[in-house]
Amino acid sequence: MFKGLTIAVAASISLAGSVFAATVDSAATGSNSIGGFSLVSTGTMTDVATIPNVWVDNDADSQWVWTDGIDNVANENIFLWQFDLTGFDATTAVLDGLWATDNYGTAFLNGNSIDELEFGYDSFGELHVVSAAGAPPFVEGQNDLVFVVTNGYVDDPQRNPGPGGFRASVTVSATPVPLPAGGLLLIAGLGALGTLRRLKKTTS
């Protein structure tokens, strides 16, 4: 009986101390996606009604969006996603994502530049990886992922470049902060009680 109890306590402590990376949160652009992004510059974020044939196609993960502003040529459009790492170890955090824009832009995580798409067909003709890991750029508590994108020509900002667009899908994972010693003992105790009850049932 006591041998089984000892094994149960050891197993409970082992499980409680084993911490694995978990998904913290995810976001994507487009009204048919999981959402999460907001436009914090002028205008309202809307789905792009007509996708130019030179843009990479929408898919189930994310869709093209832009601002409904009439004059958005050469303006910086700022798309924001906020997520919370409270209860997670920021040094283990990992961001994985894909994005594209017409015409060019920069991705920032808590003010740190983590990726940049230059002016040109590649910026909207395919999806590009955006990623980050560790602290910095991750911080404890609230984190801000910002994409600053511009629809315009680099060398001639006032020249009309045609339609503008932005799309992204991102996921953050991290290791949960381990329970304190008291929590481990509580889990171990509960596991031991469960084993004790089963032992009683089999011996009665």
Could you say how many structural domains there are in total? Answer: 2
Top-tier CATH class of the largest domain: Mainly Beta
Number of strands: 11
Number of helices: 3
Query: Any idea of the CATH topology of the largest domain?
Result: Jelly Rolls
Global shape: elongated
- Please state the CA-atom Rg, rounded to the nearest Å: 24 Å
Strand content: 35-45%
> What's the pLDDT, averaged over the residues?
83
Give the neighbour order of strands across the main sheet: 2-5-10-7-8
Order of helices and strands: HEEEEEEEEHEEEH
- List segments where confidence is low: pLDDT < 50 over at least 5 consecutive residues: 1-18, 181-190
Q: Specify the biggest β-sheet.
A: 5 strands, antiparallel
CATH architecture identity of the largest domain: Sandwich
Protein name: VPLPA-CTERM protein sorting domain-containing protein
Transmembrane segments: 177-196
Keywords: Membrane, Signal, Transmembrane, Transmembrane helix
Organism: Cognatiyoonia sediminum
Q: What key phrases describe this protein's structure?
A:
2 domains, 204 residues, transmembrane helix, four-stranded antiparallel beta sheet, Jelly Rolls, 11 strands, disordered N terminus, alpha+beta, elongated, five-stranded antiparallel beta sheet
